[in-house]
Amino acid sequence: MLTVSNLTAGYGVPNILQGLDITVRPGEMVGLVGANGAGKTTLVRVLAGLLPARGGSITINGSDTTNVPAHARPKLGLAIVLENRNLFGELTVAENLRLAERAGANRPKKFDIPRIVEMFPAVGEKMAVRCDLLSGGQQQMVAIARALLLQPDVVIMDEPSTGLAPKVVKAILEVLRGLCSEGMSIVLIEQNIGIASSVTQRAYVLSTGRIVHHVADGGWPAFLHDPHLVSRH
Ligand code: ATP
Questions:
Q1: Of 156, 161, 199, 200, whose CB is crowded by the most CB atoms within 10 A?
Q2: Cα(71)–Cα(102) distance, rounded to whole angstroms?
Q3: Does residue 36 have its Cβ closer than 6 Å to ligand 1?
Q4: What digits encode the pLDDT tens for the residues 152-185?
């Protein structure tokens, strides 16, 4: 579903991302964990098309996406929920959602606004409210809802738990888990290893721009009990 091969990227010299290989299959939730400065945000920017790859490739659904402009990536099945959520703050929730629905209109339809409201009742209650007046948790739900209305096959979630109450995080993770069981692929970028290990099947550990460890399916307990491995994150 998503394949990243030998990806390099950066801002100056040397590269920040130094040859990343990542594979995500349909229906998987895969973690990408790493400490501050590991290169997580840089990877998200390259996946989104906001920063060019310097080498290697990104393939979505078998299509080489490496040099596709940012605005065209959703058409190939990729949606990204940025850490700052990137909502149109002066527009209402309904307006934000309708814009996304329109942008996803050429894709096979899996989500519509009634389904979104079912998934996130809190979003349904705030349809007429400007996004900049919502709480952080409500904004995160709208950002996820907007991504889903692009009808993606792969969603990249950049630190969705940041600044949110544990109860809200739990509700969001539950929704993400349900989406994977329907076949959606999710990459959860997460600094908090407790959260990543509670919800992902497997994970890549990023450190100074390299994948230094892969937590295989079923490998979280061993990882969490190995202080050497945990300290690499
Ligand atoms: P955090 O969790 O703190 O966001 P991160 O894992 O997302 O960390 P990045 O933000 O990708 O890490 O940063 C990786 C490296 O790239 C850091 O050394 C950082 O200083 C550098 N960096 C990030 N953005 C820029 C930029 N716009 N120009 C130059 N260097 C940058």
A1: 200
A2: 13
A3: yes
A4: 999 999 998 888 888 888 989 999 999 999 999 9
